[in-house]
Design a protein that fits this description.
Largest sheet of chain A: 4 strands, antiparallel
Structural class of chain B: mainly beta
Number of domains of chain B: 1
Largest sheet of chain B: 3 strands, antiparallel
Oligomer: heterodimer
Order of helices and strands of chain A: EEEEEEEEEEEEEEEEEE
Strand order of the largest sheet of chain B: 3-8-5
Number of strands of chain A: 18
Order of helices and strands of chain B: EEEEEEEE
Number of domains of chain A: 2
Strand order of the largest sheet of chain A: 4-5-8-7
Structural class of chain A: mainly beta
Strand content of chain B: 35-45%
Number of helices of chain B: 0
Largest interface: A-B, 44 and 45 residues
Distance between the termini of chain A: 39 Å
Chain lengths: ~220, ~90
């Protein structure tokens, strides 16, 4: 006989059942950039232990174009938040990963048949509200604007950091918030073409995949 | 009467409402430097999303596409600037 828990909402969507799985908020960094990369481009670096942070995703909320780049080396995740603004620019980094049971002794928890924790009401789970592929675009600024419901605190994760190159500038795509909009444009590295590929100057036309996350009250 | 799950944080902020369609992770896939695909009926539960993690520095990432309940990853041509490597694909629906 089937047994367990299944919560279904008005729309007929299963919200939580014993098979539920989601990433949860691991860290929130309210910070500013502190390192100049080039004129109009700055960054700040964070590190996290890979023994605690598993399968992470990094989302940034910033009033100017920003993107997070993460690398794993040894047992440490190193995350650079690049912002198209001078050093001192404010941003918030949201880090999500495999859930770690909260220490709270109140709330609501669901376990699966193996005794594994699948839902903990004290965790702040990943809430994806949009996901799309942005093909390479040459020229035009901004690249794209998408409008969302009012009252949300949105952050963006660029989940496929394909490098692109337009004329002499190589760049990743980043996002900024503006009111209810999330706006997509370049986060430039400003490197001269000659320093990246030699005189033949190959042109990269990578597309980018973008995830918009609702971080309201996180 | 509305039904579903509603949760608040310790400050009284509403975190999950009865109308919330919760994001759900379906699985993870170890990616090697060859093209591949996987099928999972749970992709029909919502709109698919995915992300790569554990991507080595300076390595290329595959292009991901969906057709029905099948996810396919296709590598771009390997170059000296962007070679292929192993990584992890996390996928789900929202």
């Amino acid at each position: 006989m089937a047994h367990g828990l299944k919560i279904i909402n008005d729309a007929g969507t299963v919200q939580v059942d014993e098979l539920y799985k989601n990433m949860a908020l691991f860290a929130k960094e309210v910070s500013t950039t502190n390192t100049v990369i080039s004129a109009g481009l700055s960054k700040r670096t964070f590190t996290y232990s890979a023994s605690l942070l598993v399968n992470p995703i990094f989302a940034v909320r910033c009033a100017d174009y920003a993107v997070a780049r993460a690398t794993l080396s040894g047992g440490t995740w190193t995350v650079d938040v690049f912002v198209n603004d001078p050093s001192g620019t404010a941003f918030t980094l949201y880090v999500f990963g495999e859930p770690i049971a909260s220490a709270d002794t109140m709330g609501f928890r669901v376990f699966n048949a193996s005794g594994g924790l699948v839902f903990d009401s004290n965790l702040k789970y990943l809430r994806v509200i949009d996901f799309w592929n942005k093909p390479f675009q040459s020229g035009g600024t901004p690249f794209e604007t998408r409008t969302y419901a009012s009252g949300l605190t949105l952050a963006a994760a660029v989940v496929n950091l394909s490098l692109a190159q337009d004329a002499s500038i190589k760049y990743h795509v980043g996002l900024k918030y503006s009111g209810n909009d999330m706006v997509v444009d370049k986060v430039g590295y400003g490197s001269a073409c000659s320093t990246f590929g030699g005189p033949s100057c190959p042109i990269y036309r990578g597309s980018t995949d973008i995830m918009v996350i609702d971080c309201t009250n996180y | 009467m509305p039904h579903g799950l509603r949760t608040w944080d310790a400050s009284g902020n509403l975190i999950i409402d009865v109308s919330t369609r919760l994001t759900r992770i379906i699985g993870t896939q170890a990616i090697t430097p060859v093209d591949g695909s996987l099928s999972n009926a749970d992709f029909a539960l919502g709109t698919p999303f995915w992300y790569f993690t554990n991507v080595p520095v300076g390595k290329a990432t595959p292009v991901v596409s969906f057709s029905g309940t099948t996810l396919t990853w296709t590598w771009p041509a390997s170059t000296t600037q962007f070679p292929r490597d192993n990584m992890t694909l996390v996928y789900g629906v929202y």
